[in-house]
Amino acid sequence: MSQPLIRLDGLTKTYQTGELATTVLHGVSLDIDEGEFVAIMGTSGSGKSTLMHLLGCLDKPTTGRYCFAGEDIAELDRDALASLRRRTFGFIFQSYHLIPSATAMENVEVPAIYAGLSRNVRHARAEQLLTDLGLGDRLGNRPSQLSGGQQQRVSVARALMNDARVILADEPTGALDSQSGKDVLALLSELHQRGKTVVVITHDREVASHADRLIEIRDGRIVHDSGKPERPLSGSDAATGFAADDIKTERRAALADTGEAVRMALRALQANLFRTVLTLLGIVIGVASVVVMLAVGNGARQEVLDRISSLGTNLLLVRPGAPNTRRSVDGQTNTLMPADAELAAQLDNVMSAVPEMNGRATLRAGNNDYQTQITATSPELPAARDWGVASGVFLNAEDNQRYAAVAVLGHTVAENLFGDSANPLGEYVLINNVPFQVIGIMAEKGAAPWGSDQDDVVFVPLNTGSLRLIGQRHLNSITVMIDDLSQAELTQEAVRQVILQSHGGVEDFQIRNMASLLDNIAETQNTFTMLLGSIAAISLLVGGIGVMNIMLVNVTERTREIGIRMATGARTRHILQQFIVEALVVSAIGGVLGVLVGLGFAAALQALGTAIQFTPGPVLLAFGCAFATGLIFGYMPAHKAAHLDPVVALSAD
Ligand code: ADP
Ligand code: MG
């Protein structure tokens, strides 16, 4: 004897709502053979829909056994059940349960998507089915543009899409006018003629009379069964395995799936354009600010580094005062002497050693008084500082030996004393009431990296300055210029040794190396850039939370759609993928727009004079972050959607 297609054995179903447990089915036992046309009748609330959900594997019984084609469905997991639904059952619901945002064609195609049918085959089949059902001219209409009878026919076509063996119809005519109702019933009879097993659930005796077999149910118990008629179609032995899913087709379909998922995502996002735009805005702002902040931060860093490098990286700076003390800054220590500079200048790999002695003085030319810094130094200063005269000449060795009263003015000083127009060369200025002749004007140098005006200075010969203006013998610094930079460390040590020796072994001076100073500053600037970047990252995070929010709303709003997809065979993975892809599509679009906006904004800032550095790093980083945000924040809602119970999802409103 071949086994029945469906065998229910003592099924019960108890709904648990909070503390309250309602038992709806009390031990239903029933066999249905392949090819039967069965009507299950009962009054409203008698448990018919509950029974249909169990029959269609949308729900599991509380107790009892359900064997389909000999296999106990209690042993199947979520995905195996999804697979069984997809290959075996076609559902027709009283309220049609079509996806509102999809066209008639797309609705019919849904089960085939999850079956991994190729696009062309799917289209052709959906079109054929709809045309057969008289909807050939309504393929592109959305459910809201169709009458009830037409919608129900779409759902019949959907039920047939995967060539279901069993059609489960729950009050299929309940919402239809009598003519449409008759049409649908005729359709069901025809399906039965073609060998399908049809189970129709109804409270209407007239509807039930179309079936070959009538089962009445009251308060969750079968009270009457008209019994099987003569065994209908012969030969179709039901016992074919189904649990071993067609894995290979699924794999092949996975890639096409992704394309399909992106299309579905775009459609879903389009359906809620305003909300999508708002979410996009969050991501765009986040990504754009990351791009802009990092471009500004890197630009600022590069600017500072450039300015410092312009001072020369081949310099050692010798200052008085023991290492790691700051006393030298106020000039209190008088340990560094001009002789030290001379000693250093003798060393290998040293191009020059420029002594500097600083003081302040008041200058007077005509009626103009001006206070500025006096730097007494040697003729090598222009070379060491990479800073020439704009006009006239710089100090020379002879000026120093002669204690000549000559001065070279910085640009700012010249401007303040003589104005723009007059030529100060050859004129005399009084420095602390001593007349000095102006022999040169320095080229304009601009602000130092630390902000002070480097042009606000007067250079005089070392000896003259020491004796007549500053009144000290010790130096404020020696700048040592190195020839071969690769030997910088060695040379620095040599300078240290030679000065140490002349100071009788007391290390009362310190040497700093511009290259390492540069490193320090670069590091500080990196920290600054990181800070900017993190602020921007926070806004990206906020954008991500926006994505999560919209996806959660999406899931809640489209719970019924999820239920429909599950009923037609979508597996957990399909639903998960669909919602993650939606989140990713939003983030990716937002990411691209954000990068464009950010680059545009940075370019505008650059046009306005802000230092900007464009590097691919931040752009990729920002886009990557947006994508990751979509993935991370999209996962939770997607997970929520994918693990809904099919019945619960279907009955959502
Ligand atoms: P029918 O389809 O025959 O009208 P149903 O199977 O839909 O009846 O419902 C049978 C009974 O089970 C009703 O009393 C209904 O209130 C109850 N019921 C149905 N679904 C649930 C549920 N998810 N939670 C709690 N009670 C439910
Ligand atoms: Mg019902």
From TrEMBL:
Record-linked PROSITE patterns: ABC_TRANSPORTER_1, ABC_TRANSPORTER_2
Localization: Cell inner membrane
Gene Ontology CC terms, in alphabetical order: plasma membrane; transmembrane transporter complex
TM segment ranges: 273-296, 530-555, 576-605, 617-636
Keyword tRNA-binding on entry: no
Ranges for domain ABC transporter: 6-244
Record keyword Magnesium present: no
Record-stated family: Belongs to the ABC transporter superfamily. Macrolide exporter (TC 3.A.1.122) family.
Subunit structure: Part of the tripartite efflux system PvdRT-OpmQ, which is composed of an inner membrane component with both ATPase and permease domains, PvdT, a periplasmic membrane fusion protein, PvdR, and an outer membrane component, OpmQ.
Listed name of the protein: Pyoverdine export ATP-binding/permease protein PvdT
Gene: macB
